[in-house]
Amino acid sequence: MTRITRRSFVLASFAATALVASGLSAHAASETLEVYKTPWCGCCTAWVDHMQGAGFAVRVTEMEDLEPFKARHGVTADLASCHTALIGGYVIEGHVPAADVARLLKERPEATGLAVPGMPVGSPGMEINGEADPYEVVLFGPVTRETFAPY
User: Is residue 48 part of a domain?
Assistant: First the structure.
C-alpha cells in the first residue's frame, strides 16, 4: 500500500495548481510530448521535469546527433537549442515554457512550432541561482517567424 506523506501531498497539490494555472487543456494533457535529446544533457532532463510537472506525458529518446533530426523538422541553426520535441503536429525547440506549449496546442496557429533559441538562463531547465536573461519564444514556420511570448 502506498503511503501518502505530507511532502508528497504538497508536491502533488503544487503540480495540480501549476497545471491549472498554466491553462493546460485536457487535449494537451492527453498527447505525449516526444523529446529528442543527447544522453549527456542535464538541462534537457530538467526541461523534461518541467514539462512533466505541468502535466505533460513525456517520452524521451536519446540520440548522439540531433542535427539531421532538427533539419528534417524545419529547425534552422538560428532557432536551434539543445533538444527538440514533437507534440500535436508541432515542433518544440529548446527551453519553451509549458504554458506556451499548452497555448500553442489550444490556439493551433498555422506554424511549424515554437523555439527558444540557444539556452537562455532563467528559461525552464536553465534556472541558475535565480538569474534570468530576457528571451523570446518564437513561433516559426517556413515563412513565419514572430514573437509568441516575451520573457
Answer: yes
